[in-house]
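A student in our group prepared the protein record below, which I am reviewing. What it holds is a sequence and that sequence's fold in C-alpha cell form. My question to you is simply how this chain folds and whether the C-alpha cells agree. Do not assume that whoever made the record got everything right. I have pasted the whole thing underneath without changing anything:
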Amino acid sequence: MKRILFFVLVLVSLCVEAQNLKKLYSEAEQAVLHGDYSLAIECYNDILKIEENIPHVLLQLGIAYFHNLQYLDAEQIFTELIAKHHTIYPEAYFYLAEIQTLFGNYKAARRNYSMFSVSHSKNTYMNNKTKHELLSKKSKTHSNSQNHLQYVDSPHLMQSYGIYSYNNTFLYNGIYSIGDSLKGRANFYTYDTVNKTMKEFFPYTTYHISDFCDIGDTILVNIQCRDSSCTQSSVYYICADSLTSGTFKPYVSDVFPSEYKNIHFQKIKIDSSEYILFSSNRPGGYGGMDIWISERVNNSFMPAKNAGAHINTQGDEICPFYENTQSRLYFSSNWHDSFGGFDVFYAQRTENQWEEVKNMGEHVNSSYNEYYYKIINSTAYVVSNRKSKSYENATYYYNTIYWYPYIIPQKSQITDSLESIAQKTSIIQDTTYTFYVFFDDNSPQIITEESSITSLFNNYMLTQNSLISAQCSQLNFIEKQVCTNKIHEFFRHAESQFNNFIELCETVSQYQNISSLTISLQASTSSTGSIEANQIIAENRLFVVSQYFDTEFANCLGIAPEHIIIKKLPHLLSYSSKDNIALQAKQNAEQRYVKIEVHVSKTL
C-alpha cells in the first residue's frame, strides 16, 4: 500500500511539474510576442531550474538574451548548444555569427555563418542573411568605440530610443531605470539641466511608449502593451492641447493596420505635398521591416506605398528620417553593406527617384547597432549600443544617444561639384587609426626569427583560461560568471583590434595620392618586474612591431620602408616593489601592449 501511495505521489508531482512547465513556457511565448524579453528570460530560466535538459528552451533563452542586448550571456548559451546539439539546433551557429559580427570579429563570424550554411536549415530569412553575409566583405578597419561622436550622458537613460523636438523642447525617449536591468517601461522625458533631474512627459502611462510624431493638432505615438489585451505594436493618438493630462486613443486607419508593426513615424513635406514616413512589416514588402510612405490629403492618409527596392531589402529597414534641404533620406538597415548589425545609410532623392544607397561611414557607424538618426538644430543624433563610458562595466549593451555637430549645406552649396572645389585649392585629408596589440607576460625577453607580431599575439590569447582561473575561481557562482564574461569580452576586443590592425594594409592600399605615412609607437608593461627588466621588454616589443611595418606592411603597400616614418614615444613602464609585488592579474593583462597610431595624409 505504501508503495502504491508513493507512486501516486510521484505521478501527481510529475503532473504538477508538467503543468508548471507548460504555464511558464506559455508566459515566455507571450512575453516574446510583446517584446518583453526580460520577462521571457525569467520564465525560461525558471523552466531550466525545474528541468535542466531542455535544449529547445536553452535556444529560446539565448535568442531572448540576444534581443535583450545581453550578448555575452547569449554567446555563452549558443556556444554550449553548438558543443552539445549543433546538428539539432544549427540556429545557434547563426546567432553566434550575428553576435561575433556585432563584436567586429568578422573572421569568426564567417566561420559560423559557413557552418550554418551547410546545416540545411529551412529558415528562409536565416539562409538568405547567411548567403548575404558570406558574400559581403566586412574587413574594414573601424572603431567600436565612439568614433568622432560624443554621447549624451546627461539624461542617464538606461535604454535610449532617440531624441525628439517638440515646441522647442527636447524629448528623450527611453527606459529610465535604476540598477543593471532593462526592466521598466519606455516613456518620454524632459531634462532639467539645473537640477539634473528627468521628468516623465506622460506621467500617467503604464506601458511602453515611443515614436512621437506631430501631425498638427494631433500627436501620433507607438504603444507596446505588456498584457494580452492589446497587440505587440499599435498606433495611438492624443490631442496636442491635452498632452500631459489627456487619454491615448487607438488611431484607426487603413494605413496603420493593427495586426502589423507600424513604427518610426515622421511627417515630411515635399514641394507642396505632405507625407508620413514609417517602417512596417505589412505584406507587400521586400523583407522584414520596410520603409513606407503615405500622402496626406485633406487630413486623411492615402494608401501607403513601399519606398522601393532601392531602399528596402530582404532584411529590416527602420528609423526613416528625411532631411528636406538636402532631399536626403536617412535610415537604418541590417542588410545593406554595413559594419555589422544596423548601420545608418542615406539615399539622395533626385527627380522623384532614389539614388544609390550609401553607408554613413566610420564617423557614425560601428560594428554594433546604429539607429534613430536625426538632425535637429545643426546637431546630428544617433542611437548606438556600442559600449559607452557610462555603462562600461554593465553586462547589457545599452542603447545610448550620441551626437556630433552637423551643418546642413544650402542647396547652392550642395550642387557645387567636387571637381570645381578641387580646381580652387588642394585639400589635405588626415586619417588616424589607433590600435592596441597585447603581449603575454614578459614576452618577448629575447628576439628570435620566430618573434613575429602574430605569433606573440597568439601566445597572449592562450593566457585567457589561466587568467580566468586566477581572477574568478574563488568567487561565488554569479560573480564568477560576471568575472568570466568580462575577461572573455576583453580578450574578444583585443582579438578584434588585432584583426583590424592586420587588415590595415588593405584599407590604406585603397587610398590614392598618399602624401605621408607616419607610425607612432608606445610600449606599456605590467607591474610584475623591475624597471630595468621592463625597459628591455618594452624595447623588444617596439622592435617586433617596427619590424612588421618595415617588412610585411611595406611589402603589402608596395613601398620602400624608408617612406614610412616611425616615431617611438616614451615607454609606459610599471614595476613592482617588495611591499607591493603585483597588481591583480587582469590589470597586468591589460597593461602589456604596444599602442599603435597610423597617421595617413592624402591629397584630394
